[in-house]
Amino acid sequence: MIVLIFLVPIITEVMANVKGPESGPGDRNEFVEIYNNSSDTIDLAGWYFSDLDAVDELVAWDDSTILKKYPNLIINSTLLPPHSYALILDREYTRPDTDQYQQPYAIPDSTLILTTDDTSLGNGLSTKDPILIFRPLPGETTTFGTPFDTLDTIPFDPGDGISLEIINLDQGDTESNWWPSLDPSGSTPGWDNSTFKNFDLAIGDLILHPPIGSKGSAIILEAAIHNAGLQPAQGWSIKVYEDQNRDRRLTETELIKTISGSYLHPGSEEVVKTRIGHFEIGEHWIGVRTLLDGDVNPANDTGFILLRIVPETGRLILSPKLFYPEKTRLQIEYQLPAPGGHLKLSIYTAEGRKVEDLIDQKIDQSSGTIFWDGQGARIGYYIIRFDYEVDGVHYQERKTFVVAR
């Protein structure tokens, strides 16, 4: 049995909204980038280009004036080498004039240049045009903008002079796999996409258990690590340290521990929970820093949280004591003398009016943490009442805090 393997290029970048007005550069600076992700050469002779308004045949670029600016491009050919890029340019890309946008792109050496048998790409690309590049026989097609799905949000306008780039080569033409170019120039024609290198690991919420400790108590840190990049994060770690000199920089003597993380998909989050030890009475500035090769945004790599150690914390711990509902949540940590009793935690105004019962039930753990968002609470003093009964013994405690705006 003979198995035929058909090679299909991948559309990797589309520039439909060229920089400047249509009356200047117009459609001549539009381009479509394709990539050969195989180990064999693809002959693009006999392939066609369509924006669903017009159909053009792909042909070799034969205007040698392009070599004046780009002497090492590949022209007069339709052969796309393995793991290489080709650019489909408007035939008028090299048209001479005094316009500031003439031949604006930094196209790398050895890029194959193609065009169409017409004076424009399709009917002239718009930001709403999907694209098909196809060969009728044996029926091979590569697409951009999900032309067979009219209900999704692509294509869309990425902005003046900005292209749309594919994020992952192996995920194909899907709604979530296109992003505006992140390159300062607005596009990367002939180069690896800027989206391929968008690694960004960010520190999210930091929580201490308990938020205020006593001397000798074990402190547990909970750190949310968010993948804010377009690419998966793997091989990353975090460093937890005590910023003793408050300079917001990690030194070797300040390091508490290093923790390795797991594979994180784009947009996902991992919560790392770890014991960070015992601390002396006083204030301790705890820092958490992410480490990921190629991280493009160091501004969100580090976060801090204040740990206060006091001689005795009691059974109820609040943080912060001055509470801004628009900015954070009130963390309420409780310690029970023994599990299995009935706990009631309630919030009252300073005048004694009940605001809310946070807990009113049997508790099977010896400690716990809850959060209150304070929505609708007026500015002023509030009281949290702790009432716990276990084995016929009744424990009570009161703590105050302030709601501010």
TrEMBL record:
InterPro entries: EF_Hand_1_Ca_BS (IPR018247), Lamin_tail_dom (IPR001322), Lamin_tail_dom_sf (IPR036415). Residues 10-101 form the LTD domain. It comes from candidate division WOR-3 bacterium. PROSITE patterns: EF_HAND_1. Pfam families: LTD. This is LTD domain-containing protein.
